[in-house]
Amino acid sequence: MKGKILLGLTAILMLTGAAVPVKADDVWKFDAQRFVLKEYTGTETDVVVPDTMDEGVPVKRLGTQLLAGSETLTSVVVPDSVTILDVGALSYDNNLSEITLSSNLINIGWNAISSNDALTELTIPASVCIIDSYAVSGCYALKKIVFEGACPLIGPEAFAMLSDEVVIYVPDDQIEEYKKAFEDNNKDLNIQPSGKSAVLYSAEDYLDTENLTFDAETGSITGYNGMNTRLTIPESIDGVPVKSIGKRALWQDPLLGYVTLSEGLEHVGEDAFSITDTLKYVEFPSTLKTIDKKGFSSYRGFRLDLPDSLEYIGEEAFSYFSLETDLIIPEGVKELGPGAFSMASRLQRVFLPASLEKIGDNCFRNSPITYVYMEGLELPEISDTAFDSCEYLRDIDLNEKCTKQQMLDVQALVAARGLECRVWRNQNTEVEYARFSVEELPDDPSKLYLTGYEKEAAKVRSYDTYTIGEEDKGVVGIADGALKGDQTITYFAVPHNDEFVYVGKEAFADSILEHVDLFDSVTSIGAEAFRNCAQLKEITIPASVTEIGSRAFAGTSLSEFVIPANIPVNGEALEGIELSNIKLSADATDEQVAEWSAALNYPWYDRICRVGEESMLVKMPYEPLPEDNFEFDEESRTITAYVGTAVDVIIPRTIGGVPVENISYNAFENTRDYVHSDMETNQKEGDWVPMRCVILPETLKSIEDSAFTNCHDLETVICYAPLETTNKGLFSECQGLKKVVFVNGVLHMDNYLFNFCKNLETVWCKNQVDRIGIQTFGVTPMERLCVDAKNIDMSAFAGMESLKEIHIRGGVEHMSLGAFAMLPSIETICLEGIDPDVMEDDWANLGNSNLTILVPEDTSDEQLEAIGRKFLSSMIITDGAQVKRGTCSMPEDPMPDIAEMLSAYGI
């Protein structure tokens, strides 16, 4: 499919005269066998790379340092035929300020776009799925990088040595994936939403079945004649399942960079992908069992995600590979063949599974590994030469339950090869073994529970087994109440024996425990297990835990409690722990965050944090006015009167130590100006405090109806209070009001909120609001308005005489078309994805024949017609043709710079 797309594009370009084949005897040197431009000898400052050479041969690769090191090159256009940028292809060009990349680009190679001093912006096309190490590095002038597609694989240091000012713009629906990818690369870069969704490619987009040769008898791919850089091997061809990749089927392919092996494939044959020097990543299926001799020899990828189904890695299967990250051999692999990972030029750390039975001759020979971990309690058969010439190998860790003899055997093996390497067994060095009283499990006498402790050592772990009679029995848990009230143990470590699963109810309740090491065999923590362990300040809950009983940690001093993402949601388990001290592990999904937030009764404006995140609630950072500026009713926690004279009012969080939670209707009576209103009054000029700014703290829960009505001098409102509702008419008739910022959001913008605020310029709210009420924005002067609300009441915008353009975000659940009444200047209403069924056709009577109703491009004909009927029925437009498809989205507005706003008042 991808090949067809490229050919179609080339045909179009040739018809328009933009793609005349270039001969390789001019300024370009071209390797037609590998489709790569090798050299450029021209002197143009603005280079448009040809898309074909030598009588129509497509240019697929820009070769190593093709356009590198130029002092005169200022711009480069990479044609859509190109899918690979080789090492340093566009690097070290001091005046290169503009790069246009191919829309079919797959792989941005090592150092490909590096050290370009004049480059300020770069757009990464949606097709890119691999960005190699140092690919975009050392471009110190780079200020903006825009990603258009799903998060690609990003190699170590791919974006190293960039300016602190660089901003990474990514699709809104991919922001978490990008943040994680950069976090995994230890890059603290400024990642922001681009305002667009990702252009997505799937594995199916890269099927090229017609260019694969296939032996239906054996179910084996035997060759490939296509030119895909990203290639998907199908699950079946002509109904026959694909079971294997045959011998040399894709070896020495000059273009393959990203391969997806579909489910059902079980075997990769000898030399299948060997010496394919462009191959950077392989998606393996969960069905793969064997990789044969030299299957991926010379693999250049920076990641290797082998599947759990794999059982055998053959002779030299990954010899000469250049993996930069840890090599993790999955559980299930039984044998590593001779030289399987020999001559791996960048490999440093290796993790071997418990299932491994054999490590072959020269397996890691002459690789720069420094550390090896062996998970198995039973060590594999290790060839004497397995680690030959691994001169940098310093540590081998065995499973903490391996025996001393096992440790000595491995130590002797590495010593015999002349390696300065120490072999260890993992164990908790903070504690010492101690004997506990035990009892047999009623339902399984071969297992033991710990029932008590009467020794003197304070930092202890139990023995793994106890001899009962003549039989050794393993410890699997702590009995209910076993160490309740204990006044000796301050540090307890679960035995690292993979059998200890249970911490009983009230097991340590009321004890002086300060530290506890729960090994990752533990699955169950009983109710009130650590209740009132007042000195317990930290604990790590292993991911193995699937059950935590109610109030298990109530009364502890835990400053942070991290919930592993896989633990079932149970709010009762964490009763008694301060909400602010509870976090989810960093890998928790958004759905898990939402579920735990609900279970722990987080308020609507906040949610449980992942590790490394901060609370969503922003606290007011400004020093409040002295408390004596306010009359305060402690019982109702209400400010009843402002008695000060300051024109810039910062309301305190507490008065007399009591939180301020409400402002009464009459509280700001002395700041109201009735002289310049339509109300009859005995007030005289100057009888009021000309309050110009008010800042509301996050402690506020409510403000009564019309609390600031007729405060005509009020210009700026900064509200840190996450209000359920503004109540009615809160700022109505504030004729001088210009700027309002709801820092922590508001749920309901109630009726008449800004009615007759005739100078209103800015209203910013953190969240989507549940409701915009009647005349919320009535008779305000704004020309453009962006609304993000679930419900929009009739007359919500009525009387906005200057309003020309209004954007209604998606997510609307009900909208009265009467909201658009009395808008004489309206030119455009943008509906950013609204189901016509949620529109209520109320009487608006605009009859505006010049008004355009814009809807998204993907709006169906039926929806388009239904929207037209609704607006016609409400007499907003005069012709259904006024409803048109088009670009109808407004970028997200960042929160206004509050510090800058308040600097005008000296705050």
UniProtKB/TrEMBL annotation:
Signal peptide: 1-24
The UniProt record lists the keyword Nucleotidyltransferase: no
A Pfam entry, by short name: LRR_5
InterPro entries: LRR_5, LRR_dom_sf, Surface_bspA-like
Gene3D superfamilies (UniProt xref): 3.40.50.12480, Ribonuclease Inhibitor
Keywords (A to Z) from UniProt: Signal
Keyword Signal assigned: yes
Protein name per its UniProtKB record: Leucine-rich repeat domain-containing protein
